[in-house]
Here is the input.
Amino acid sequence: MPIHVDELYRRTRDVALAARHPLLVAHRRPDGDTLGAMLAFGRWLERQGKVHTRFCVDGVPAAYRFMPGADQVIADQERVKEIAPDAVFFFDAADLKMTGVEELLAALPDAKIVNVDHHVTNAAFGHLNLIVTDASSTAEVVHRFHEAVGESVDRATATCLLTGLCTDTSHFSNPATTAQALHVGSALLSRGAKLGDVMTHIFHNKSVAVLKLWGVALSRLTVNRTWGIATTALTRADYAEAGVGEDESTEGISNFLNAVLDVPTVLVLKEGKDGTVRGSLRTTGERDVAKLAAHFGGGGHKKAAGFAVPGKLVEQDGHWRVVAV
Here is the structure.
């Protein structure tokens, strides 16, 4: 018999408080939701007087270091092994591959795994899986956690949660923007969340070099009206020529294109330095892009999903293709 979600919130609280030393993990290539949810949960543990460790294998990108507690996130797996946490909490990770800590977990065979997420494609890899698929974001899940266990949200927590909420709703503009998401956003503002900081660091942060790189992506847009999809591509050479980093510089372009194009679905392909091509899918139509992403080993939501496949991008006859390296 399925466990009621309120019981899952209580069990999540109990595991965290019973643990000797919890480890909180954000997924690799972190965005505002995974970090905001993790930092908010860490703030709750802090208020309970609970010593814990916050971890992300890729560290915290510069754009998100304004969030309270971001300076406490470490990326040293050997240090984590020395701490030997007995409970590991994952935030916004649909599967373990997204976290980059498979080897680390193997060194912690007795640790209790708690999986906190909102993706419908989540692999339910935890001993305890707090997966709330009607939430707009994992930040909203953590906000509901606070409500369920009777904990208030302070200003620092509210700012972290608002960052996650704004990230996954594209500042309350994409299909994840539900009545509940707007209600949570209002509640967070009433608790003192710093919307100005979120806007400045997450949205008003594009340099001229980055926007020129976006221009390259725009110049390569092609539309297939039969399938109702627009595609574009960026290579590592494009990043190098623009003089910008590969990690954060094009974050948000798929959301932007999905918001302004007269085509229901958008696919943005980007070469990564790890020998993969990442696809970012968005739609305003009825198509379930999570199913499409799953076909390539990825996942996400019906309206927003992604995947990564080995290979590189090659232009052939005016079209971009993923070919084996």
Q: What stands out?
A: The two ends are 47 Å apart (CA to CA). The chain has a mean pLDDT of 92. The chain has two domains: 5-203, 208-323.
